[in-house]
Specification:
Number of helices: 12
Number of domains: 2
Radius of gyration: 21 Å
Helix content: 40-55%
Shape: globular
Bound molecules: S-adenosylmethionine
Order of helices and strands: HHHHHEHEHEHHEEHEEHEEEH
Length: 306
């Protein structure tokens, strides 16, 4: 096929049967839903990738993706093209305020506690877990230095994770971060770029994980699970299953923070809704004393941040 063959072509249309096949494959493997309205997005993404690897048509590409090891490798590239990785530092400030006051209360109510574990689920290119890490480092400095934290960060996209591990961001992204964090946790590198300092980077461990495989996830006893702007891509029933798995991975008294409006009519015997207006969060209720602490934290967060 001549090299410029594809560049002369518009993305061909998927017929209904093909579209259903692709929809089913994506839903089964990633949970992602491609609605009829996003069909042309799918056509364009598939076509661009097929051009790059010189595959002639949708059926041949489907065949390639669903067979053998090379199919698995190609799959991870395609998934990266189809997922939305938009993110930013401290994206939803009220949720970060809530995490801060929750962890501060854990330290206050459990003076012997030395460590907190946090998990950013669907961490994209790292802005969210590094925001959590900055928040925790800052908090520990303000209460008592002799405490530790670890952030686990997972995502489906390997290229996003590779970028996250590097921890290098454009000046445009970094300039929106409060100065106190910018000064302490970033250093200039290259042209108009900033790198997260190694000391903070080392507190965050990145790994690949599909939220459809949470049953097999080794993460347990998390003090904070932070999952935002990920559930929006799933069907309602799947959302509920994912959140239930996450709830089961909370430590007693642990906090699960979801994006506001991302989950409806879900409940789980282990958790209670966290009393807070502008966040959507749940608290594992095993520890009765934590209920008082919970409401105290919510009040403090509201007082401090209006
Ligand atoms: C819009 S980003 C959200 C990033 C960050 N949580 C935030 O709120 O800014 C959604 C992320 O979810 C990831 N994702 C999509 N489907 C996934 C799945 N099945 N398992 C794990 N991560 C997934 C994407 O790769 C993407 O990085």
């Amino acid at each position: 096929m001549p090299a410029d063959f594809w560049s002369l072509q518009q993305a061909p249309k998927l017929d209904q049967k093909q579209f259903l096949l692709w929809q089913e494959l994506l839903e089964k493997r990633t949970g992602m839903q491609i609605s009829e309205q996003r069909k042309s997005f799918l056509e364009t993404a598939l076509t661009l990738r097929m051009r790059e690897i010189s595959v002639a048509d949708y059926d041949a590409y489907y065949e390639q993706l669903t067979s053998g090891l090379s199919g698995e490798i190609e799959w991870s590239t395609l998934v990266d093209r189809l997922t939305v990785q938009e993110t930013s530092f401290f994206r939803h400030q009220p949720s970060f305020d809530l995490v801060r006051s929750h962890v501060r209360d854990l330290f206050v109510h459990q003076p012997n506690r030395r460590q907190v574990n946090l998990w950013s689920v669907g961490c994209a290119t790292g802005e969210e877990p590094y925001s959590l890490a900055m928040l925790m480092d800052q908090l520990i400095r303000s209460v008592d230095g002799n405490r530790y934290f670890g952030v686990t960060a997972t995502d489906l996209s390997l290229p996003a994770l590779a970028k996250a591990r590097k921890g290098v961001y454009s000046a445009r992204k970094v300039e929106r971060i409060p100065q106190i964090y910018r000064d302490r946790y970033f250093q200039p590198v290259g042209k108009a770029q900033f790198e997260i300092i190694a000391e903070l980077r080392n507190q965050v461990s990145f790994s690949r994980m599909n939220v459809l495989d949470l049953k097999a996830a080794p993460m347990l006893d998390m003090d904070v699970i932070y999952c935002q702007n990920l559930l929006i891509y799933f069907k309602n029933q799947r959302k509920k299953e994912i959140v239930s798995h996450l709830a089961e991975r909370l430590a007693p008294g642990g906090l699960l923070v979801i994006g506001v409006g991302e989950l409806m009519e879900w409940s789980h015997p282990r958790v209670v809704r966290y009393a807070s207006d502008n966040t959507l969060a749940f608290l594992r209720k095993d520890d009765a004393n934590r209920d008082d602490a919970k409401n105290e934290s919510a009040k403090t967060a509201r007082r401090e941040h209006g």
